């Protein structure tokens, strides 16, 4: 069951989880995008590109490329998701079954995707390394000048196809596993394990859409999701649709689990915000 919460609790938990997840897991997102930009790259090859990869990636912050748009996107994005979810739960009532959980998860994520899409696009372009943007506002203005308003929403269909099912599948398995395997326990261990399991399954199902989304967003051409999918298949058959799968799997399961742990912990202390 999804707990009914005030907007204040959703705002605080969303902000905290968004900040923590962005800072901790941005390197995994950067590596994933690099792998998806070209089918010629491999995880091992990317990590061994240079003897100074540890220095460049960790100490000089190369692996945190895209952190600024990630923070700008993730914090309001997670907050929007939890606020939308909590308000929908109030309307639906406390007895939420698997199908209702799927519908709520999809609806909340779709709303968030549409609102955050311009920042998602800018973040992907930061990470791919093919664009010389100096700031988020500069990137937005540059895209508007060259690609007009539709350019900021490039890849929206693929992003929705990726995120809406992910959230629906995740929420359904999260609520059911927590209810049946842990008898509705609110402990940190039950929240973490349920989150990891649900995130892993949802990542496997939705990863092809993530690859298509990345390819659409780093291109300045108007390509449909279908045409990009055909191009990917010509490049590497089915394996091309799972480029960057390992870092995304690790990141999404950890992010989803961490976000829900923080959400549940803030919820337990809701008296501080009411």
What does the secondary structure layout of this molecule look like, with pairings?
Blueprint: H1 7-37, H2 43-47, H3 53-59, H4 67-92, H5 98-128, H6 136-152, H7 156-180, H8 188-218, H9 225-236, H10 245-268
Helix pairs in contact: 1-4, 1-10, 4-5, 5-6, 5-7, 7-8, 8-9, 8-10
Describe this structure in words.
The chain has 274 residues and is an all-alpha fold. It is built from ten helices and no strands. The protein is globular and about 50 Å long. The chain starts with 6 loop residues before the first helix and ends in a 6-residue tail after the last helix. The mean pLDDT is 81.
Q: What is the number of E strands? A: 0
Name the poorly predicted regions: none
The helix content is over 70%
Distance between the termini: 22 Å
- What characteristic shape results from the CA principal axes? globular
Q: Summarize the helix and strand pattern as letters.
A: HHHHHHHHHH
Task: Compute the number of helices.
Answer: 10
Which percent range describes the beta-strand content? under 5%
CA radius of gyration is: 19 Å
Structural class of the helix and strand makeup?
mainly alpha
Give the averaged pLDDT, no decimals. Answer: 81
């Amino acid at each position: 069951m999804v707990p009914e919460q005030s907007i204040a609790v959703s705002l605080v938990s969303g902000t905290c989880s968004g900040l923590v997840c962005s800072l901790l897991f941005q390197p995994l997102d950067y590596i994933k995008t690099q792998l998806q930009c070209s089918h010629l790259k491999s995880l091992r090859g990317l990590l061994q590109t240079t003897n100074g990869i540890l220095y460049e990636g960790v100490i000089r912050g190369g692996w945190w490329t895209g952190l600024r748009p990630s923070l700008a996107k993730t914090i309001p994005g997670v907050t929007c998701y939890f606020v939308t979810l909590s308000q929908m739960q109030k309307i639906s009532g406390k007895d939420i079954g698997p199908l209702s959980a799927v519908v709520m998860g999809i609806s909340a994520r779709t709303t968030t995707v549409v609102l955050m899409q311009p920042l998602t696009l800018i973040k992907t372009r930061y990470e791919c390394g093919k664009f010389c943007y100096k700031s988020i506002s500069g990137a937005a203005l540059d895209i508007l000048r060259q690609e007009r308003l539709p350019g900021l929403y490039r890849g929206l269909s693929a992003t929705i196809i990726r995120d809406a099912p992910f959230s629906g599948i995740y929420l359904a398995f999260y609520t059911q596993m927590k209810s049946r395997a842990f008898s509705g326990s609110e402990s940190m261990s039950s929240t973490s394990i349920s989150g990891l399991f649900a995130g892993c399954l949802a990542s496997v199902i939705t990863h092809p859409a993530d690859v298509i989304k990345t390819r659409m967003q780093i291109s300045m051409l108007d390509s449909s999701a279908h045409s990009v999918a055909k191009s990917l298949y010509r490049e590497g058959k089915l394996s091309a649709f799972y480029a960057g799968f390992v870092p995304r799997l690790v990141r999404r399961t950890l992010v989803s689990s961490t976000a829900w742990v923080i959400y549940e912990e803030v919820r337990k202390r809701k008296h501080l915000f009411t």
